Amino acid sequence: MGVQAVKQIHLGDISVDVALKSIKNIHLSVYPPNGRVRVAAPLRMDLETIRVFALSKLGWIKQQQKKLRAQARQAQMEYLERESHYVWGKRYLLKVIEQDAQPCVAIKGARLLLQVRPGSEETKRQSLLSDWYRRQLREEAQVLIEKWAPRIGVELPWLTVRQMKTKWGSCTPATRHILINLELAKKPQECLEYIVVHELVHLLEPSHSNRFIALMTQFMPKWRFYREELNRLPVRHEDWSY
Ligand SMILES: [Zn+2]
User: Which of 84, 77, 37, 78 is CA-nearest to residue 57?
Assistant: First the structure.
């Protein structure tokens, strides 16, 4: 799928990159960290039609940009006492314990305990915590995969957990490989379940076709509700398209 040309349109002070490609539908995306806006449109679509489409999404674009900026601020974590961290959609206050012992992470009541060696650096604290999130997510995602794969009627896929900026998950049906965004460990568990089901259904139907939608509705009648919930949060699983 070759990109033919990149043009730009302007919606007030927001500039939008337009890439014309051999695709069927128009897609609009807002990218982190700065909220850059990009439209991918079919080769023959004229700029005025693209402009009207982008204008109709202006409210949504501004809302996404606002969230991305908030997220960028959120990313300035210092791993210090009483900082807020989210685990499965719940907020915990960080408690840093400096102790000359094996570093570890644990939840105790409303606190997320981070035990580190005295004088440990911010990057060390960050990697300890992200390893811990990764273990939580892997374990939970594996349980959900084992629950859902037989129901959906697919073989168990390979699972990789990765920090991603623009996607909650993805699936490569040819290799039966599912990729899950590490950030999901911070969201309510039902969001992870929705992503797991979504990616498993891709093993039956690779595209977001009507068949895909019908299968999603069959297996998880409330899937649109969970997608809404995720779309309210900064990283998005799917772009606008029609
Ligand atoms: Zn998908």
Answer: 37
Ligand 1 centroid, distance to 108 Cα (angstroms)? 36
Distance 15 CA to ligand 1 centre (A): 28
pTM here is 0.68
Band of residue 51 on the pLDDT scale cut at 50, 70, 90? very high
- 63 and 107 belong to one structural domain: no
Question: Residues 6 or more apart from 145 whose CB is under 8 A from it?
Answer: 156, 157, 159, 178, 196, 200
- What is d(CA 146, CA 169) in angstroms, rounded to the nearest whole number? 17
User: Domain check: are 60 and 135 in the same one?
Assistant: no
Output the domain CATH number for residue 148: 3.30.2010.10
- Our separate counts of H helices and E strands in the chain read 6, 12
Distance (angstroms) between ligand 1 centre and the Cα of 20 equals 22
Whole-number Å distance, alpha carbon 227 to ligand 1 midpoint, is 11
Q: Which residue has the higher pLDDT, 34 or 143?
A: 143
In terms of domains, do 96 and 215 share one? yes
Give the count of domains, the chain: 2
CA count, 13 A, side-chain hemisphere, 160: 11
